[in-house]
Amino acid sequence: MSSPVYSLHQLGWRASYAQHLALDDFESAYPARVMAVHRSGLAVHSSRGQAHVVVPQRVVDALEVSIAVGDWVLVEDANERVARLVERQSLIERIGAGTDGHRQSIAANVDTLFVVSSCNEDFNPSRLERYLALAHQAGVEPVVVLTKADLCSQAGAYVAQAHGVARGAAVVAVDATRPEGLGALARWLAEGSTVAFVGSSGVGKSTLTNALVGNQARLTSAIRDDDARGRHTTTGREMFLTCTGAWVIDTPGMRELRVGAAVEGVQSAFDDVQSLALACRFRDCSHGGEAGCAVRAALDEGRLEQRRWVSYQKLQREVTEASRTARERHENNRQFGCMARSAMRAKRERQGR
Ligand SMILES: Nc1nc2c(ncn2[C@@H]2O[C@H](COP(=O)(O)OP(=O)(O)OP(=O)(O)O)[C@@H](O)[C@H]2O)c(=O)[nH]1
Ligand SMILES: [Mg+2]
Ligand SMILES: [Zn+2]
Fold first, then answer.
1. Is 335's pLDDT higher than 90?
2. What dotted CATH number matches 263-340?
3. Is residue 63 within 8 Å of 108, Cβ to Cβ?
4. Judging by beta carbons within 10 Å of its beta carbon (0-12, 13-18, 19+), is residue 325 exposed, middle or buried?
5. Which ligand 1 atom is the nearest neighbour of the CA of 176?
6. Residue range 120-126: average pLDDT?
7. Ligand 2: distance of its center to the CA of 45 in Å?
8. Is the CB of 220 under 6 A from ligand 1?
């Protein structure tokens, strides 16, 4: 059975991708979209059909963050090898667990990020804020999806709470196990658009993916009902086609989401707090009790929730720390680069003699 062939439009190609490409690029290579990332290479789809391509080391070395599902690559005509990455329109990334703080790509060229939480103990406004900052940082529209509405008698209360932190982003409550009830997601699933699901383990990301995709391989496993804690079931990074022609990326549940140096992301996710801070009498107000502090006033009057304020400060500290580490790493790399270059120069001079 031959694999289906999709047009560039169906694969999600936009005119803006071509902006960073030259005519030469198309002479000996063609654009292809990354459907899955394997250790041995990439599964890609292009207007020529499906292929498995390898990524040469020099391409890997040129990347700041590794190739992700959803990326566009240029594939050499002559052999099934990636010539280079096409500049991304968006990249969902996070900071890996552990102390080295390296960036991990989750999904690329995503139009909508579905931030999934369930209407039970998993629901946590401060965690939602992290995911929203992640979406804002990537410049991707976030949509909050609250699952397991069928298991909860006050889904409306969760929706209201989510609206409180979502800052104008859409909030949708669903029963992920009933595909026919997922019409509320349809407006983000037009042909050629790309969406990704993120959220804790067991909230229903794979259930939603399965429901939208239809007869795909089963991706879910049962959750333990007693503590509503999910098992980590999804491991692969792969993109699937929905019945409406959208691409959907399921991701494994994250135990901990660190936002890294997401300065703009945190600012956008907390634009209400930002504008309060700008209204303080003193420009360098520490919001610790100075006269004319608009943040304190809002907290006292209940216009700003104490929890949200604490959550904001915590994220700010993380962002500042991550930016500092990134700067230091950059500086170390630069110094190492200088050292290596002068050592090479010295070697060449010695050999020249
Ligand atoms: N009743 C009900 N059950 C749901 C709903 N969403 C998910 N479930 C169940 O919750 C369990 C876990 O769902 P998954 O889709 O595997 O969760 P996940 O987010 O993909 O989890 P990870 O892959 O571990 O990150 C499954 O047994 C689903 O059937 C829902 O809206 N209603
Ligand atoms: Mg899953
Ligand atoms: Zn202040």
1. no
2. 1.10.40.50
3. no
4. middle
5. 31
6. 92
7. 23
8. yes
